[in-house]
Amino acid sequence: MRFAQIHSKLIPDKLLHSPEKTYPISSFEQISTAQQTNPNYIYNQELQQQLAGKQLLPDDLTISIEEIQEHFENGYLIYRKGIHLEKNKPICIRCGNKDLHFFGRFPCARCGEDCLYCRKCIMMGRVSACTPLISWTGPDQQLESTSLQLSWAGSLSDGQQTASKRVVQAINENKEQLVWAVCGAGKTEVLFEGIDAAITAGKRVCLATPRTDVVLELTPRLKKVFPNIQVASLYGGSEDRHLNAPLTITTTHQLLRFYQAFDTVILDEVDAFPYSVDESLQYAVRQSRKTLSSMIYLTATPNEKWQAECIKGKREYVTIPARYHRHPLPVPSFQWCGNWEKGLQKKRLPRNIIQWINKRLDAEKQCLLFIPKIDKMEKILPLIRLLHPKIEAVHAEDPKRKGKVQAMRNKEIPLLLTTTILERGVTFPNIDVAVLGAEDRIFTESALVQIAGRVGRSAAAPGGEITFFHYGKTDAMIRARKQILQMNEEARKKGLIDY
Ligand SMILES: [Zn+2]
Ligand SMILES: [Zn+2]
């Protein structure tokens, strides 16, 4: 797309009545916008619905360019550069990418030039040097504010209660709050009162999480708790794309389409991949917030930097140090298992691992065994199957992953070998867990705390063992164990555990 600038007003080339000099939007020094919205203009409510709180490409909209331009000229929307050139260095305004490796060029039919584009966010449609990002600046869609949204008969534990109050307070005061809740504390319930308070005040709420699985799990749960309101559920390929609901549940990826949309953003599993390592997703979360807004972070395992900020008083946080069932967290034990990778080459497993497995097979207690890499897992599986033929293995790309997890739930599998794919999100009621090769770099402090958090989840079977088999202790292992011990100690001091 090319634009001309006439009397400091941008006009798309298609709408020009006479030949003018035109440029890709990124070539303009400044883009002027209408001084104010024209109150006499009758705006298109469907466009408002599609565009409010978003930053979309012309291709994302179902409305003609003539009508889009009319709204622009009447002050109901703005054009922003998709790619901004700062001293000739490109920045993608949608995803914040500045890394030259993630820019490419292509012969562009829209501007007729060799057009620079961002590869980082291309899965959301191409942003190139000639692409405008379009955002709504007209009146907000009014959300109906109705009270008594919440339909939930459950009760909160003492730890949850404290956290819930802090969440409500942060939402009311437009502040940031980190909720550091141990695995199995029940962190979702802690949000209910806060979401209710926000929606009652006519605020727009977003619950974002790095993983699609979590969106799919949370959507029906929250729809049940908030039956009177519309809930939009967004992930790659979802149908709710143009839904402008008071409560949006979304993957962090989908936030790339939002711009100053939410009064309250709740970010679940801040420590989880890919959010934790992908700066463009962190940028997307910032962009999706209104200037005046609240931000709630949820995690069982904040990274080292955040932990330090909490301790130094630089970050508002509240802990839920105990599980809902008031039993302490199982504490990992360390067992040295020698150079297991070398043993594998000779088709041998460490003896203490074999003993550990046999003991559980004899007692018919189910277990998970975490392995750092897929290729190692493939070598281990046939060896372990000699102990029991029904042992299975899963990893991220395994097409039978869901079926195997279900078979584990049905107790048809005695032991499941897994990569870190099952480190979070899954609950099996009565299992022991071990890590083989806990010294591997993939097992960060956060991953190990999550893995340990798979044990003793249910009130009926709150115990269970977690063992890290290693060939040399790492800092991550030591920190993970310390974090768990500290949470148990804090929970005891606060009277949140009984055993
Ligand atoms: Zn172009
Ligand atoms: Zn981008």
TrEMBL record:
**All residue ranges annotated as the Helicase ATP-binding domain in the record:** 168-320
Provide this UniProt record's keywords sorted from A to Z: ATP-binding, DNA-binding, Helicase, Hydrolase, Nucleotide-binding
Q: Which PROSITE patterns match?
A: HELICASE_ATP_BIND_1, HELICASE_CTER
User: Which species does the entry assign this protein to?
Assistant: Cytobacillus mangrovibacter
Q: Which domain of life is it from?
A: Bacteria
Task: Provide the protein name.
Answer: DEAD/DEAH box helicase
Gene Ontology molecular function terms on file: helicase activity
Residue ranges occupied by any Helicase C-terminal domain in the UniProt entry: 356-499
Which Pfam family, just one, is annotated for this protein?
ResIII
